[in-house]
Structure formats: C-alpha cells, structure tokens
Amino acid sequence: MTTSKASGAAASPTSSAGEAGRPRLISVRNAGRSRSTSARRRRRSSSIVLLLGLLATGVMWTVLAPGGNATETPDANEAVRQGRALFLQGCATCHGLNAQGSTEGPSLIGVGAAAVDFQMSTGRMPLAAPAAQADRKPPSYSETQIDQIAAYVQTLGGGTQVPELTEADLNDADLAEGGELFLANCAQCHQAAGAGAPLTYGKFAPSLSQATPEQVVEAMRTGPESMPVFGPGQINDDEAVAVAAYVRHLQDTPSPGGSSIGKYGPVPEGLVAWVIGIGALLGVCLWIGARQKL
C-alpha cells in the first residue's frame, strides 16, 4: 500500500508537469502563427502603399508633364524619315547610302544641318556637273524638302544647326560693327561691295547680291568651297548677325553715282571713263578737224 501510494504520489507530479508543459507548446505555436500573420499583413500593406504611390506618381506626371515634347517628337521623326528617303533618292549616289562619302562626294557625317541648308538653298547641290567650284543656281528642292534632308543629316553626328534670324535681330544689329568685320575678314575675297572676285585654279569668291542673312551666317560657320570657317571664337553670334545685316545693307543701298557698273570699284569706272569718255572726246575732235578741212 505504501509503495503504491508513493508511486502514485511520484507519478502525479510527472503528470502534472506534462500537463503543464502542453500549454507552453501550444502558446509557442500560436505566437509563431501570429508573427507570420502580422508579417504577411505588413507585406500586403507595403504593396498597397507602393501601388498607391506609383498610381499617384503617374497621375501627377500626366497632369504636370509638359505636352510640347509629345507633339514635337513624331513631327521630328517624320521629318527625318522623309529626309532619309529624299537623301537616298537624290544624294546617296555621290555621298553614299549612309552619307559616309565616296569618290564622287565627301562624307556628310558631322557637317550639320546648316551646311546642307546652305548648299541646297543656293542650288549648289545637287551638283549639275563636276567643276572647279559649284555656282549658285535656283534650288532643285523645295524649302520643306531641304529642311527634311537637313534634319536627317543633323542626326548623323550632329553639327552646326541652321541659324534662326528674325527681322528684329537684323534691325537691332550693329551695322557699323558689321561693316568693320566684313572689311577686315571678307572684303579680300568678296570685294568691298560684296560683288565677288576670281581666285586661283578656276575658283572664285561669289557675289553676295543674292545671299540671304541666314546663308551669310551659314557660310561663315561652315566654310563652303574655299571659304575659311569663322567659328564663335573668332566671330560670335551677335557679330555674325551684324555681318549679315551689313551684307543686306549692301544689297539694298542704291548707288549714289548712278549705275554701279557691277560694284567692282574704281577700275571698271576708270575704264569706262577712258574708253567712252576719252573716246567720245577724240571723236568730237576728229569731227571738228574734218569739218575745218572742208
């Protein structure tokens, strides 16, 4: 009896300890489940916050983003596409399919839109026939087509852009400064009145009587034919506009002495004086002498 009681007494603490241990295991499992549930909730909340933030950013961008680029990009791409088609049709024969140049024409990579606009707006390109120098003639392409080809060439390595001159820019330009710059840098070849003059090996400095202000600036920046390049370090943009305004002044100003005789200066004027003036006087003298003999 004593033994059984002792053993029962000894067994009871064990059983109670086992019973007491079970709730602990259950509480640990519940705590783990609660932590995983809270972690899922936090992740779900973070995802919702992130989605709301992205949605708000998209709405703000749609409302506040400038709308000019969205409309300009297709037009610019269309101009480049049309320009490439025109280039392959009329220019690639000499300049190569990718404007890399050939034995018939130089590379156009990096020359810029200004060089294209100058050469094509003055009719020098496409070249009618090989010669020492391309002469000015009516353009073969319309202004829109020239702009498209220039836009395409501009994408091939960049280069000088077409200058944008307004009437206000030309009217506000310093005409006296433009005249000084022209006489110092341009008159040696183009003559003081812009009438042009011959050079060596069949080349010549063309007359500026038909040059537009944009073409004057383009020629200064790109240096076509034998003309040197006048970069912004030599003649800045304001000075270039002043030179263009002075060239237009030469075109519009009438000759105070009557006929300008090509604006070639005192040499043709003196030749006319000798040939016509002195010749007329000699003719009168001979006529008077013949009448006296009679």
TrEMBL record:
It catalyses: a quinol + 2 Fe(III)-[cytochrome c](out) = a quinone + 2 Fe(II)-[cytochrome c](out) + 2 H(+)(out). GO terms for molecular function: heme binding; iron ion binding; quinol-cytochrome-c reductase activity. InterPro entries: bc1_cytC-su, Cyt_c-like_dom, Cyt_c-like_dom_sf, Cytochrome_c_Oxidase_Subunit. Binds 2 heme c groups covalently per subunit. The chain crosses the membrane at residues 45-64, 271-290. Its EC number is 7.1.1.8. SUPFAM superfamilies: Cytochrome c. Residues 78-157, 173-251 form the Cytochrome c domain. Keywords: Cell membrane, Electron transport, Heme, Iron, Membrane, Metal-binding, Repeat, Respiratory chain, Translocase, Transmembrane, Transmembrane helix, Transport. Heme c 1 binds at C91, C94, H95. GO terms for cellular component: plasma membrane. Residues 1-42 are annotated as: Disordered. This is Cytochrome bc1 complex cytochrome c subunit. It comes from Parafrankia soli.
